[in-house]
Design brief:
heterodimer; A: mainly beta; 7-stranded mixed sheet; B: mainly beta; 5-stranded antiparallel sheet; 11 strands; about 0% helix
Amino acid sequence: DSGVTQTPKHLITATGQRVTLRCSPRSGDLSVYWYQQSLDQGLQFLIQYYNGEERAKGNILERFSAQQFPDLHSELNLSSLELGDSALYFCASSVGGTGWGQETQYFGPGTRLLVL
Amino acid sequence: ELKVEQNPLFLSMQEGKNYTIYCNYSTTSDRLYWYRQDPGKSLESLFVLLSNGAVKQEGRLMASLDTKARLSTLHITAAVHDLSATYFCAVVLPGAGSYQLTFGKGTKLSVIP
């Protein structure tokens, strides 16, 4: 158990709908990252937040948005869902957010999204 | 654009044998990570390699980094069934202030008794 929690574990929804994925980082970690894992694209970085502010953006679609709240939990919002958005969405957290030294990203259990 | 390539993508090996997984990356980076993923599960951090020539070992796994060749290897010694999993290497995209991991496609390892 990494200490990172994600809810829900599974989500089934229809095309065109909107969903929210939630992540709570490890105690003491200030950075939260979101990744998407799919069979065709592999593991892709979506976005990073550090202490409430966006730090880096990756291959995140405009239909997707995220935020980190004052209590450091994060939410990933996916809207106008398409079949191709079906994937495993991971949240990770780390202490500082720059990767210096032995800083490691710890991954949560993931949310499996199925869009029908 | 940073590209990370792993090979092989699939590896079937007998228990007791040795093998090496290779990870090549396209852009200068002095930080490389190895993760393990069991089917349907999350990613577990195995190694953090921070400098040229870095070598780390944990049990039957040993990872090394050659930043000049932009190459990391994950060596498996005397494989056992419990090592069956998918192994990912990941490299940090160079850039100030971010810690964005770019992953390889993963190597699916099956250890056969």
